[in-house]
Amino acid sequence: MIDPTRTTQVAQVSQLHGSRGTGRRWQGLLTLGVVAAVILADQVTKWWGWRHVPGAIINPGGTWFLGRTVSAWYSGQLEGAVLDVLSLQVLTLGAFVLLRRPRRLLVLVSGSLMIAGWGSNLLDRLGLHLVTAPGFERGAVDFLPLGPDRYNLADVCITGGTAIFLVAVCRRRARTSRRAAASRPVAPPEGLRGWVSAWKWAAVAAVVPILVAGVATLLTVPRTY
Asked: Engineered SS bond to 73: which of 79, 146, 186, 208, CB 3.0-4.6 Å?
């Protein structure tokens, strides 16, 4: 005899797994679309900028965020190649973490922008610079002027994506804290503590890499690159 309750439970579990599979496929397709669009747009604008924008430069790996010491490592032939491979592995791990479970749209898109920006600049260092700037050393084309420095579309995606990602994660964490506080009979300050905790971790995520790069720079003699 077939138990109707058991049959209903099995159907519900199957429907749940099916919806999760569909959600993950949707997330994967959206992430792939964002990454592909950013990389294509970035590489096309780099190709155009190198040929038509006065003052365009080849950045061999230096950036203000990493500091002079780490930038010099990325600029080296051997050290740069090793760091490029490690960066590719970290980027792949980041994509896996982003897609391993359902994400809100804002988190998914901003995370995809970060991955796409870093990935496009990394592809330059792994060989695409032979197309965008043939005949020159390994590096990414920077042609967008901002103060004394030059940037590219990938840098814009990295900066904007990181800012949006931090805001989205902080809002999500604060909203979760408020809901948890509302379900309890006491402790209304929990929502405030959730905001403080969320912004605390956001500040740590933004400040710690800058401090590390600054300390690394101070440990060596400043040099241009």
From this structure: 79
